[in-house]
Amino acid sequence: MRKSLFPIFLLLFGLPLVSIAQDMTCPIIVQTALDTIHDLCDSTGRNQACYGNLSLEVEPQPEVESLKFDSPGDIVHAADIQSLRLSSMDAAVPEWGIAMMRLQANLPDTMPGQNVTFLLFGNVEIQNTVEQVPEIEVMVTASESINVRRAPDDAVITTLAPGTILTANGRNAGSDWLRVALADNGAEGWVAGYLLHTEESIENLAVVQPGEMIYRPLQAFYIRTGLSDSPCSESPNSGLLIQTPEGAGEVEFTVNEVRIRLSSTAFLQAEAGNALIVNLLEGHAIVTTFDRTVTVPAGARTTIPIDENLSASGPPGDPEPYTEEAVQSQPVSLLPRPIEVAAPLTEAEIAAHSACTISSGTAVNLRGGPGTVYTRVASLSADTATVVTGKAEGADGFVWWQLSRERWVRSDVVEASGNCGAVVVISEQDFPPVPTPAPAPIVNSGGGYSSLIPIGLCTTPVVNAGRITLNIGVSRNRWANCEDAMAEAQNRGLAIFTGSGPAPANYRLSPQCHWNAQHSEWGISTEADVVLTPGIYTYTGTWLDGETYTCTFTVQ
Question: Which residue from 445, 522, 447, 444 is spatially nearest to 140, judged by alpha carbons?
Answer without folding.
Answer: 447
